[in-house]
Amino acid sequence: MPENAKSMRRAPTQKRSRERVENILNAACELISVQGSDLMKMGELAERAGVSIGSLYQYFPDKAAIIHALADRYNAESRHCIEDGLGVVTSADALVPAFERLVDIYYELFLAEPVICDIWSGTQADKTLRDMELEVSRSHADFLCQTIFRLAPAARAHKEDIAARCLLIMYMCESTMRLAISVSRDEGKRVVAGYKAMTRRELEAMLNL
């Protein structure tokens, strides 16, 4: 069952239904990118998606469910990005450059999809989104931990310490991206560069424990 089924009233099972849900989510992205999620109306979304309001409510009971589904979609995309980027690393020396490339890719993703920032801007006011962000950070941190242990087996002796540091790195990544796209492009680049410098020191330290 897809993650966004937690928030959806009816999880799509057939191809036609899945396509309809994707169409609704794509339409939601278009509206949010123009006016923000706060101003998006369910009737307006149904019209943009080309479905009846009844069909829309069959899948999504309210606007919050749509926001959660979009968050799930972006979380899955970031997870695949991390797995693809770190899964191919074969030496400890290659981990830092690979991680920094991931950060750059993630930054470009946030710049290209302002909807992501709009979604996560409501994190502090929505406990479900807060819990989701922490869950995603833990998942990403676990993958980073396993990558470190694979490249530097001796680091397993410090498993709990490394797990906490990886969680901090991944949680800070989300916060860094939100800050970076909230300021000018030049300042955003400096913010991202500062984050990479901090994580570089942490990763090198963990690989050499």
Protein model, in words:
- The protein is mainly alpha-helical.
- It has 2 domains: 15-61, Orthogonal Bundle (Arc Repressor Mutant, subunit A), CATH 1.10.10.60; 67-208.
- Helix content is 77%, strand content 0%.
- The chain is built from 9 helices and no strands.
- The chain has helices at 15-35, 42-49, 53-59, 63-87, 92-112, 114-121, 127-151, 159-180, 185-207.
- The longest helix is centred in the middle third of the chain and has 25 residues, at 63-87.
- The chain is elongated, with a radius of gyration of 19 Å.
- The termini are far apart.
Strand proportion, as a percent range, falls in under 5%
Specify the biggest β-sheet. none
Give the helix/strand class: mainly alpha
Contiguous low-pLDDT stretches (5 residues minimum) are 1-6
Order of helices and strands: HHHHHHHHH
Helix content: over 70%
Could you report the average pLDDT, rounded to the nearest whole number?
Answer: 88
For the record, give the distance between the C-alpha atoms at the N and C termini, rounded to a whole number. Answer: 40 Å
Radius of gyration: 19 Å
Bulk shape: elongated
Q: Can you count the helices?
A: 9
Q: What is the β-strand count?
A: 0
